[in-house]
């Protein structure tokens, strides 16, 4: 119930106005958000790279309401791709389609996505399209496939799969058959009971099943290891802070003989740096999802919803003033 309440707050304009007015709120949010501008986020990525950790950079801002806002978000993504290139950091980029207009007009979103992908290709980089809540699942997969039909390569474009969805197994199998680079997550939205597993244990079990399916598929593919510059990930990425899920992935990959550089572990900025560094020491590619920007409120509220300890972190900042 608390999780559902916090996710509903993440979309409430009145709550955003109230919480972002509190002076301590940004101090708490800055644990999970690298900063408000590109200079901040490039600095954060450099520090990760020093520890052998790659990044996927995300400009926050998913609640746009006009075509002009979608264009502005697109321009920022193009700008940050240039900054990654200029700085020479080991990072790719993640986006949400709601940032670039999918909630307004599919054609607007498609035009913006084409522009971004052309720039990604020219930079020799990689774009991960995040998966949002279920009203956008089919259109996200459809747009991904339309980009491939336009001639964009899967070495420049990938998707995300959410383990709490009932449809995830079928989608995963189909997308892997087509060579899709997938990031596996548990899922962070408040979905209806006919769309997603309501119990954590069921989601965990499905996560392990999807991990097995992904590893089995990766074994059959050529050229599926991480690129030397750290920008293009392997075919499969396991995105979790759950040591049991990570342990299952490591054990199964070792059992079937998948090379360590063919499976990437991904985590969120500000969470479990100790585990990130241990995985690097163990010889696995690790990538951290690094968000930045002034529109940090919805992202921050979802982080509170995911992990109870994050709520206590927020409360402790309140009492620190």
Write down the oligomeric state: single chain
Q: What topology, given as strand order, has the largest sheet?
A: 1-2-3-4-5-6-7-8
Look at the structure and give the CATH class.
Alpha Beta
What is the rounded distance between the termini? 28 Å
Features:
321 residues; alpha/beta; TIM Barrel; 8-stranded parallel β-barrel; 13 helices; globular; disordered C terminus
Structure in words:
44% of the residues are buried. This protein is 51% helix and 13% strand. The radius of gyration is 19 Å and the shape is globular. The chain has a single domain, classed as TIM Barrel. Strands 1-2-3-4-5-6-7-8 form an eight-stranded parallel β-barrel, surrounded by seven helices. The protein is built from 13 helices and eight strands. The longest helix has 21 residues, at 67-87. The chain is α/β, with parallel strands linked by helices and 321 residues long.
Précis, in short:
By secondary structure, the chain is an alpha/beta fold. It contains 13 helices and 8 strands.
Question: Can you lay out the helices and strands and say which pair or pack?
Answer:
Blueprint: H1 2-10, H2 13-19, H3 23-29, H4 38-50, E1 54-59, H5 67-87, E2 91-95, H6 106-123, E3 127-129, H7 137-149, E4 157-162, H8 168-177, E5 181-185, H9 200-219, E6 236-239, H10 243-256, E7 263-268, H11 273-281, E8 286-292, H12 297-306, H13 308-319
């Amino acid at each position: 119930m608390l999780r559902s309440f916090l996710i509903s707050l993440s979309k409430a304009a009145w709550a955003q106005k109230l919480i972002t007015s509190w002076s301590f709120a940004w101090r708490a949010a800055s644990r999970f958000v690298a900063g408000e501008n590109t200079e901040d986020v490039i600095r954060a990525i450099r520090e990760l790279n020093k520890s052998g950790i790659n990044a996927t950079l995300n400009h926050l801002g998913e609640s746009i309401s006009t075509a002009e806002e979608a264009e502005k978000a697109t321009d920022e993504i193009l700008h940050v791709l240039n900054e990654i290139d200029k700085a020479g950091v080991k990072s790719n980029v993640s986006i949400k389609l709601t940032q670039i207009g999918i909630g307004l007009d599919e054609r607007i979103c498609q035009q913006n996505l084409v522009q971004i992908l052309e720039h990604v290709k020219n930079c020799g980089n990689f774009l991960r399209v995040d998966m949002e809540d279920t009203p956008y699942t089919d259109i996200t997969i459809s747009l991904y496939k339309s980009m491939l039909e336009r001639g964009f390569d899967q070495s420049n474009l990938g998707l995300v799969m959410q383990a709490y969805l009932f449809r995830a197994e079928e989608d995963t199998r189909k997308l892997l058959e087509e060579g899709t680079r997938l990031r596996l997550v548990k899922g962070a939205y408040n979905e209806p009971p006919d769309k997603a597993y309501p119990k954590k244990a069921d989601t965990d079990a499905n996560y392990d099943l999807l991990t097995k399916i992904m590893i089995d598929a990766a074994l059959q593919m050529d050229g599926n290891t991480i690129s030397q510059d750290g920008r293009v990930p392997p075919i499969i990425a396991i995105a979790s802070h759950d040591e049991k899920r990570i342990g299952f992935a490591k054990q199964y990959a070792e059992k079937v003989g998948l090379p360590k550089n063919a499976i990437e572990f991904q985590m969120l900025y500000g969470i479990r740096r100790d585990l990130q560094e241990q995985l690097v020491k163990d010889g696995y590619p690790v990538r951290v999802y690094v968000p930045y920007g002034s529109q940090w409120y919805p992202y921050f509220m979802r982080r509170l919803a995911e992990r109870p300890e994050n709520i206590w972190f927020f409360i402790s900042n309140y009492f620190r003033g």
